[in-house]
């Protein structure tokens, strides 16, 4: 198997960083990053290489977020990377329907649940151990069928002018108390929230998850649909005091709002369902038309420069050792995500049924 030139992708991605230093906003729950010329501009930053094959990747991550990475890899590797973008759930359903006839060689998913589902259905091929070893065991398939590329932590984003740090709860379960009545926001239609609820079900049981959801509703929790960004903006404006989101939304919205944006992230206690660390990950399909090229693309995503792109541009956690998180973020090892197999987040349907039962969908 060949490999993507570290210098090639590094040069291309550094060109992207020079042209783009701020995240402009959010759309449909995903970071919107200006691409500024996208393929043409990025390709000019890399040393031209001969075309040597084509590969199709299905991406549940948005084009505005990961398009620059694929363009840089395309330019640096000589692999023509065709990417089909859609929601992670939609693409997972498509892959299940297409089966061995799919034109895709790889799936880049927004969350581990979709990867776990496809792994259960036998759609992924085992990955080489050398690739698996780049990522800690907790952030990859126990059977070696998929691997995390980046990670994000669930947090409580809070208004630092309205909430005393000493008041912050140790557990997400405490948010049903009187202190937080009418002060919290959540986004039940967002995939990350749904993964959190799936984890809650695994840790505490379905009955406890239902009881918590119903108590939060009764406590006046404000529904923001599918937008974590809208929650963080509302927290900053003082419309609510805190909200359940992924950690990186603070940095994205904060870049828009400026240095005086009065919002901080609170991490719940280790092992709490509210401390879930989920991953965006990648699997190579068992029936892949171009498995070797799909593996090379993955190597590029897990290269040091590929990982730094995500830490610098999207404020996510890198999963490769030696690539440090964004300043101000605690190391992943200090967060204390619940002890569970991320593949088990595959039972999304059970979570959707529960959210519908309590009136959130």
Instruction: Write down the overall geometry.
Output: globular
Mean pLDDT: 87
The total of helices stands at 13
Strand segment count: 12
Q: What's the CATH class label of the largest domain?
A: Alpha Beta
Percent of sequence in beta strands: 15-25%
Judging by the overall fold, what is the CATH architecture of the largest domain?
A: 3-Layer(aba) Sandwich
Computed CA radius of gyration, to the nearest angstrom: 20 Å
Specify the helix fraction band: 25-40%
Are there runs of 5+ residues with pLDDT below 50, and where? 15-46
Largest sheet: 10 strands, mixed
User: What is the rounded distance between the termini?
Assistant: 46 Å
The secondary-structure element order is HEEHEHEHEHHEEHHEHEHEEHHEH
Superfamily (CATH H level) name of the largest domain = Periplasmic binding protein-like II
User: What structural class do helix, strand and pairing data support?
Assistant: alpha/beta
Structurally, the number of domains stands at 2
Q: Would you tell me which CATH topology of the largest domain applies?
A: D-Maltodextrin-Binding Protein, domain 2
């Amino acid at each position: 198997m060949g490999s993507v030139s570290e210098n090639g992708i590094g040069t291309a991605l550094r060109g992207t960083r020079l042209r783009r230093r701020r995240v402009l906003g959010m759309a449909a729950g995903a970071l919107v990053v200006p691409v500024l010329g996208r393929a043409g501009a990025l390709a000019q930053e890399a040393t031209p290489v001969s075309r040597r094959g084509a590969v199709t990747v299905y991406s549940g991550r948005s084009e505005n977020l990961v398009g620059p990475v694929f363009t840089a890899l395309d330019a640096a590797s000589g692999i023509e990377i065709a990417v089909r973008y859609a929601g992670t759930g939609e693409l997972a359903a498509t892959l299940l329907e297409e089966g061995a006839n799919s034109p895709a060689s790889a799936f880049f998913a927004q969350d581990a649940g979709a990867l776990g589902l496809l792994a259960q259905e036998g759609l992924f091929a085992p990955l080489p151990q050398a690739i698996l070893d780049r990522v800690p065991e907790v952030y990859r398939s126990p059977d070696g069928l998929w691997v995390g590329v980046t990670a994000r932590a669930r947090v409580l984003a809070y208004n630092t002018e309205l909430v005393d740090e000493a008041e912050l709860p140790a557990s997400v379960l405490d948010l049903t108390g009187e202190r937080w009545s009418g002060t919290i926001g959540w986004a039940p239609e967002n995939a990350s929230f749904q993964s959190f609820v799936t984890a809650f079900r695994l840790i505490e049981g379905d009955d406890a998850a239902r009881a918590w959801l119903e108590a939060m509703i009764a406590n006046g929790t404000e529904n923001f649909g599918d937008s974590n960004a809208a929650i963080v903006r509302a927290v900053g404006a003082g419309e609510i005091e805190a909200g359940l989101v992924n950690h990186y939304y603070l940095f994205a919205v904060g870049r828009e709002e400026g240095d005086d944006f009065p919002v901080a992230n609170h991490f719940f206690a280790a092992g709490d369902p509210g401390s879930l660390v989920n991953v965006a990950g990648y699997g190579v399909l068992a029936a892949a038309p171009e498995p070797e090229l799909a593996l090379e693309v993955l190597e590029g995503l897990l290269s040091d420069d590929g990982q730094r792109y995500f830490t610098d541009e999207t404020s996510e956690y890198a999963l490769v050792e030696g690539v440090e998180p964004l300043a101000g973020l605690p190391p992943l090892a200090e967060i204390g995500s619940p002890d569970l197999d991320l593949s088990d987040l595959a039972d999304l349907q059970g979570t959707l049924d529960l959210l519908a039962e309590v009136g959130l969908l």
